[in-house]
Amino acid sequence: MPNVSNLVKTIQDIMRKDAGTYGDAQRLEQLGWMLFLKIFDDRETQLELFQDDYRSPLPENLRWRSWAANAEGITGEPLLKFVDNTLLPTLETLPGTDRINGLVRMAFADANNYMKNGTLMRQVINKINGIDFNASDDRHLFGDIYEKLLKDLQSAGNAGEFYTPRAVTQFIVDQVNPRLGETLLDPACGTGGFLTSAIEHLRKQAKTEADERMIQECFAGIEKKHLPHILCMTNLMLHGIDVPANVRHDNTLARPLRDWSPKERVDVIVTNPPFGGMEEDGIESNYPGEFRTRETADLFLVLLMKILKPGGRAGLVLPDGTLFGEGVKTRIKEALLNECNLHTIVRLPNGVFNPYTGIRTNLLFFTKGAPTTAVWYYEHPYPAGAKSYNKGKPIRIEEFDDEKAWWGSEADGFAARVENERAWRVSIEQIKAGNFNLDLKNPHSSDTGPGDVDHLLPEYEKLLGRIADTRAALKQELHRALTAAAGIAE
Questions:
Q1: pLDDT at residue 9 tops 80
Q2: 3-state helix, strand, coil in the chain (%, to 5)
Q3: 455 CB-side CA count, 13 A
Q4: Domain locations in the chain as residue ranges
Q5: Which residues contact 351 (CB under 8 A, 6 or more apart)?
Q6: Nearest CA to 269 among 344, 184, 193, 201?
Q7: First-last CA distance in the chain
Q8: Binning pLDDT at 50, 70 and 90, where does residue 486 land?
C-alpha cells in the first residue's frame, strides 16, 4: 500500500511546478474535485456489477474512465481545454432531476481548475489512477489521504477548516446513541466526520437490507464551504453511501429561524459548529432579538434548540467562551436550560484540537423537552505521563472508557452516577444564582497556584466586560447630569 504522506506530497510537488496553483488552498481544491470524480467512477464500477440497469448520469465522454483513466490519454493543451471548456462547465449545469445529477451539480457548483499546464495535470491524474477505491486497503488509504489533506488545509491558513479528532466524534456519537429509524443531522458537517461516525454506529445495528436502505436516507448535513463539502460527499461515498445528495452546500444560519418547519425537526444532532468566527452582516437578523449575535457557535446553539424534536438528543463541541459568556450568551444558556435537559458537560483539557486551535473546548449533551434540574460535569484528564496533545499523539477513544463506565442511563435520571475526583453535580439553583455561568471548576481539584493562561484569560475578559459596562453607565449618568444642569441654567 502506498505511503499516504508520500503520495499526497508527490501530487502536491507536481502541482507546485504549475503557475496556477500558487498556494496549498488552490492545490487542495484542485485535488478535491479530481478525487471526487475518481471515487465516483470507482463507485459506478461497483453499481454496474450489482445493478444490471445502472446508467451513469454523466455523458460518456465526461466519465473519469473515458478521459483520465488511460495513462497515455489526453494531455497538454487539449487536456486543459477539455477540463476548462467542457468538463467543469457541463458538470456544474448537468441536466436531469435525478438525485445523482443533483449531487454532481452541487459538487461542481464552485469547482475551479487552477492548473495551467496540461502535462503536469496528466501527471497528477496518473498518480490518482494508482488508487483503486473499491479495494478495501485503498479505501482505507483514502481516510488517511483525507486527514492529510485537512492538515495541509489548516497550514494553508484557512481558518476554521479543521477536523474534529476521530475519538471525539466517536465518543459523542456513542453517548448520544442514534438508533435505526431515527433522523440525524449535522448542520455544520465540514468534511463529514460526525456523519461517517454515525453511519458506522448505525451499521452495527443493521441486520437486513431494509436496515441498510434506512441508513442511506436517515441522515442529512449542511456545509457552507465548497472544499469541505466535496470532501464530505467523497468521504460518505467511501462509507458506502450511494448518493450522498442529502448533504447540502449552504449556510445553515442564513435561513431565518422561523422558516424551519416542525416537519424538518430531527431526533439526533451531532456537530462541532464553527467557533471563534463572526457571521457576515445581516445573518443575526434571522434570529429573535434576544438571541441576536454574530458569534457563530451561539447562533448554532439557538438553532439546535429549534430543530430538535421533543425528546430529541444532541451532542456538540463548544468553546469555554459560550460557558462563561454574558449578555446574549446568558439569555441563550437560560433558554437552553429551560427548554432542554443539559445533563452532561465533559470538560476537555487543553490541546485536543492542536495544531488547529488552542481554544479550550467542552462536549455538551442535552435532550429537548424537559428543563434541566442539574448538570453533571466530567473533567477529562490527560493520559498518564502526557501534558498535552499534538499531531503525533492525538486524543484516543480508549481515554473515554472511564466516562463511558460512569455515564449511566438518562431513562433513570442518571441515578447510578456518583461524584468522584473527576465528576461533580451542580444544581440548577446554583447555576441560576451564578447568572447561568456554566464555566464551573472541579471542586475536587486542589488549587495549586494562580492558574494557567487558559483559565485566567476568561476571567480577565469578564472583568473587561464589567469595566466597559460600568464606564457606559457612568457616561450616561454624566450626560444626564450635564443635561439637567444646562436646563437649570436656561
A1: yes
A2: 50, 10, 35
A3: 12
A4: 4-133, 166-433
A5: 358, 388, 389, 390
A6: 184
A7: 90
A8: low
Distances from the Cα of 173 to the Cαs of 141, 195, 202, 234, 310, in angstroms?
23, 9, 10, 21, 19
What mean pLDDT is predicted for residues 186-196?
Answer: 94
CATH number of this structure's domain 166-433, picked from the four choices 3.30.2290.10, 1.20.1250.20, 3.40.50.1860, 3.40.50.150: 3.40.50.150
Alpha-carbon span 369 to 280, nearest angstrom: 32
pTM of the model: 0.83
Judged by average pLDDT, the poorest of 174-178, 191-195, 340-344 is 191-195
User: Judging by beta carbons within 10 Å of its beta carbon (0-12, 13-18, 19+), is residue 124 exposed, middle or buried?
Assistant: buried
CATH class of 4-133: mainly alpha
> The dihedral of CA 142, 145, 146, 147: what is its sign?
positive
Q: Which string of DSSP letters, residue by residue, matches 6-68?
A: HHHHHHHHHHHTSTT--SHHHHHHHHHHHHHHHHHHHHHHHHHHH-TT---SS-GGGSHHHHT
**pLDDT score of 155:** 57
Q: How high is the mean pLDDT of the chain? A: 88
